[in-house]
């Protein structure tokens, strides 16, 4: 599942994506220029991408990618890890844009 944020202005898209993730129970990894940010359902502190081991990356529930300064920013959540409540809420709010 993907949600794309196109908000205009410095860091506007990434801030909107972070707010959306928080609203939907996703923790977001630390920002690192040119790298994805990890996503996990629940309350977690997620390191920068280059500090994650491959096993850590494989355990993520999704990623945030794109131009964090200018947008667009894409939140992609793996359906393998997606709680049913999240899917139902996203469908009700019409935010699902398809599958990654």
Quick description:
With 100 residues, this protein is of the alpha+beta class. The chain has helices at 12-23, 54-59, 84-92; strands spanning 2-5, 26-28, 37-41, 62-66, 73-77. Strands 1-5-4-3-2 form a 5-stranded antiparallel β-sheet, with helices on one face.
Question: Would you give an account of this structure?
Answer:
The chain is an alpha+beta fold and 100 residues long. It contains 3 helices and 5 strands, in the order E-H-E-E-H-E-E-H. Strands 1-5-4-3-2 form a 5-stranded antiparallel sheet, with helices on one face. A hairpin with a 6-residue loop joins strand 4 (62-66) and strand 5 (73-77). The longest helix is centred in the first third of the chain and has 12 residues, at 12-23. The mean pLDDT is 87.
Continuous helix count: 3
The share of residues in helices is 25-40%
List the helices and strands in order. Answer: EHEEHEEH
Oligomer: single chain
- The Cα radius of gyration reads 13 Å
What value does the average pLDDT take? 87
How many domains is the backbone divided into?
1
Number of DSSP-assigned strands? 5
Major pleated sheet? 5 strands, antiparallel
| Uncertain parts | none
Give the overall form.
globular
| Percent strand | 15-25%
- Which strand order spans the largest sheet, edge to edge or round the barrel? 1-5-4-3-2
Distance between the termini: 6 Å
Structural classification: alpha+beta
Annotation keywords:
100 residues; alpha+beta; globular
What is the topological layout?
Elements: E1 2-5, H1 12-23, E2 26-28, E3 37-41, H2 54-59, E4 62-66, E5 73-77, H3 84-92
């Amino acid at each position: 599942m993907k949600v794309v944020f196109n908000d205009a202005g410095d860091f506007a898209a990434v801030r909107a994506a972070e707010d959306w993730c928080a609203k939907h129970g996703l923790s977001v990894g630390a920002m690192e220029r040119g790298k994805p940010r990890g996503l996990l359902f629940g309350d977690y502190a997620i390191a920068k991408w280059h500090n994650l081991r491959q096993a850590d990356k494989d355990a993520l529930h999704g990623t945030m990618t794109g131009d964090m300064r200018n947008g667009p920013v894409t939140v992609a959540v793996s359906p393998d890890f997606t709680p049913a409540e999240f899917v139902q809420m996203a469908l009700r709010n019409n935010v699902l844009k398809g599958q990654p």
